[in-house]
């Protein structure tokens, strides 16, 4: 049988990984797919650089549209990234009747509804395993492996850069800015790390997982997104003393009121497996009603781990290439005419518990005033930790830290209480608030 022919738009780190792994494991992959899979065309504006990656084993073009226009190409792999050109090329490939594989989580999180509708109308597949958590097959697990379950919640460490930074802050007691510079030097963080450290990258990925878990449209614009830039090393130290670790989590949860969709730093009990995921690794926990809790762990980025996910999609498409489109797994796991209209909850309606750190004047009555405000807001306290003043500022210090763990309450109620506490003359700095997730 004639091999499936693949064109790669944007041959770089991941594209070269796809090319090399296909070359290295071609016989094994052919045995799994039932026919050969060959990359026959690649595009890159700098043709000379592309040729150093693929040699004469594939045709190199500067114009990505030349690949889409080639009638011999069966599958287009989009690895350009971004929203604008990538969207145009993906829609053009779909219109040309070609299947698409992409690692572009930003594109799908923002424009996925339009892209999946176009693919469904044309009878082609858009596969995106590599868009979430690199080499971890979490999309396939949610779409197929857990299809018998009513998914209750998903929580993941889905950005390796931020997890590396938080691990280094905990291990070495360093502040965020210092560790960020080190992460950039080592190549874990980009020169402009905004998407990573502000939680945007994780929110793109979470949006896709939420859509698949609950059968709702992709709605990135409704996600709550908070990064790690305001975390201090003292918070990581205090969390440790209380039996927790701080992780940037993407959390999506089904509730009677709607779906939670949020990314933010979270205190996680140190005994949870996900709390012990260190460095640049990723992990996702899924809670299903039938299966219980499952954990998926591995490399979330890198040339060959991401290539592993891209090639898995190529194999899936190859197997189903001639299948009736109505018998394929739907893009978002649920049949397009059976999607749910569950609303994404505004963050003010989310119920969770909290870690609060207050820098206060070291004088009588301060703690009673603070706890009184929480009680008046009907927020109950789980634990209080008050540091000695000399631990904070040395002998003779006049201020100290008070750390409070609360029980569950709505975010809006906590916001109101925080505003009252922040206005107290004895509260000397902005209050640090970190949500607490038991993941039980």
Entry keywords:
single chain; 440 residues; alpha/beta; Rossmann fold; Dihydrodipicolinate Reductase, domain 2; Alpha-Beta Plaits; eleven-stranded mixed beta sheet; six-stranded parallel beta sheet; 16 helices
Low-confidence stretches: none
Query: How would you describe the shape?
Result: elongated
Helix content: 25-40%
β-strand amount: 15-25%
At the fourth level of CATH, the homologous superfamily of the largest domain is NAD(P)-binding Rossmann-like Domain
**Overall mean confidence score, pLDDT:** 94
Could you give the distance between the termini? 50 Å
CATH class of the largest domain: Alpha Beta
* CATH hierarchy: architecture of the largest domain: 3-Layer(aba) Sandwich
CATH topology of the largest domain: Rossmann fold
Return the domain count.
Answer: 3
Please tell me how large the radius of gyration is.
24 Å
**Largest sheet features:** 11 strands, mixed
Oligomer: single chain
The secondary structure category is alpha/beta
DSSP strand tally: 17
């Amino acid at each position: 049988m004639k091999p499936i022919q693949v064109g790669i738009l944007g041959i770089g780190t991941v594209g070269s990984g796809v090319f090399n792994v296909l070359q290295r494991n071609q016989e094994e992959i052919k045995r799994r797919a039932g026919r050969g899979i060959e990359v026959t065309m690649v595009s890159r504006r700098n043709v000379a650089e592309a040729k150093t990656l693929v040699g004469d084993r594939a045709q190199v073009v500067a114009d990505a549209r030349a690949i889409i226009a080639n009638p011999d190409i069966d599958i287009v792999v989009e690895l350009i990234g971004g929203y604008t050109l990538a969207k145009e090329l993906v829609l053009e490939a779909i219109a040309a009747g070609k299947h698409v594989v992409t690692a572009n989580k930003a594109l799908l999180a923002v424009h996925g509804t339009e892209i999946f509708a176009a693919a469904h109308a044309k009878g082609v597949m858009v596969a995106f395993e590599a868009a979430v958590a690199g080499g971890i097959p979490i999309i396939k697990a949610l779409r197929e492996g857990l299809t018998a379950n009513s998914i209750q919640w998903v929580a993941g460490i889905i950005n390796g850069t931020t997890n590396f930074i938080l691990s280094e802050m905990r291990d070495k007691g360093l502040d965020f800015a210092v560790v960020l510079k080190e992460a950039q030097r080592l190549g874990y963080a980009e020169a402009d790390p905004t998407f990573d450290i502000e939680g945007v990258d994780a929110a793109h990925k979470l949006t896709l997982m939420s859509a698949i878990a609950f059968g709702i449209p992709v709605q990135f614009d409704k996600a709550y997104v908070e990064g790690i830039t305001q975390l201090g090393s003292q918070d990581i130290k205090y969390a440790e003393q209380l039996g927790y670790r701080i992780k940037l989590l993407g959390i999506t949860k089904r509730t009677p009121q709607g779906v939670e969709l949020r990314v933010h730093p979270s205190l996680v009990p140190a005994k949870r497996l996900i709390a012990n995921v260190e460095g640049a690794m990723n992990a996702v926990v899924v809670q299903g009603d039938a299966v219980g809790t499952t954990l998926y762990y591995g490399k979330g980025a890198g040339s060959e781990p991401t290539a592993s996910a891209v090639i898995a999609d190529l194999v899936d498409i190859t197997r189903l290439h001639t299948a009736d489109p109505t018998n394929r797994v739907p893009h978002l796991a649920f049949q397009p005419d059976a999607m749910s209209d569950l609303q994404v909850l505004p963050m003010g309606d989310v119920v969770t518990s909290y870690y609060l750190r207050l820098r206060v004047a070291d004088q009588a009555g301060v703690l009673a005033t603070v706890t009184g405000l929480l009680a008046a807001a009907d927020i109950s306290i789980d634990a209080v930790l008050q540091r000695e003043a000399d631990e904070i500022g040395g002998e003779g210090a006049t201020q100290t830290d008070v750390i409070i763990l609360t029980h569950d309450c709505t975010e809006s109620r906590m916001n109101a209480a925080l505003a009252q506490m922040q206005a107290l003359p004895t509260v000397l700095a902005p209050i640090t608030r970190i949500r607490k997730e038991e993941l039980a």
